[in-house]
Specification:
Layout (H helix, E strand, L loop, with lengths): L1 H14 L5 H4 L5 H9 L7 H6 L8 H4 L47 E8 L2 E7 L5 E4 L4 E2 L2 E6 L3 E9 L5 E9 L9
Amino acid sequence: MRFRYLMVVMAGVMAVPALPATAQMVGARPNDVRTSLSQAPPARPAASAAQNPATPAAPPAQTAARPATAPAPGPRRDPFDPLLGRSTGQGAAVPERLPPGKAGLMIGTLRIDGLVRGPNGMIAVVSNPQQRVYFLREGDRVFDGQVTRITMEAVSFQQTGRDAFGNSLEREVTRRLYPNPGEQR
């Protein structure tokens, strides 16, 4: 078993092509190695072809070196940055200036603090990320939707917005007072 392993390792060592002296240096850059490996091997001199007539000479088109591809100029794109919906006017992006009061509340950033049954119906006690408290009733308008229903355990909103391509999008969002495990609070 050791003999087979040794033979495989030796075959692998012998199969590694010799790199130019610049690529074998310690301070060599990765691009130098890529460039040297991507280029075709140098053409054999005519004297060696005359010594071995059984080996045909390679055509000149194959011996021509391919141009190395240069990296694109400018900064590289972050691979984790989404390709669609980069502009601030699309999707659920927060605008720079929101209107004051209830009209400036965004459904995705609300925290349900409490639900109260009042003489005129249900009232939801919510807070925004700046810890300001608001009281919402059914039918109240917020920045990206409207309150449709308030129950003892949740508040339902009709959210309006735009998808990544700019098309209108409406959906119903329910925010619970005590969310189940895995739900966002």
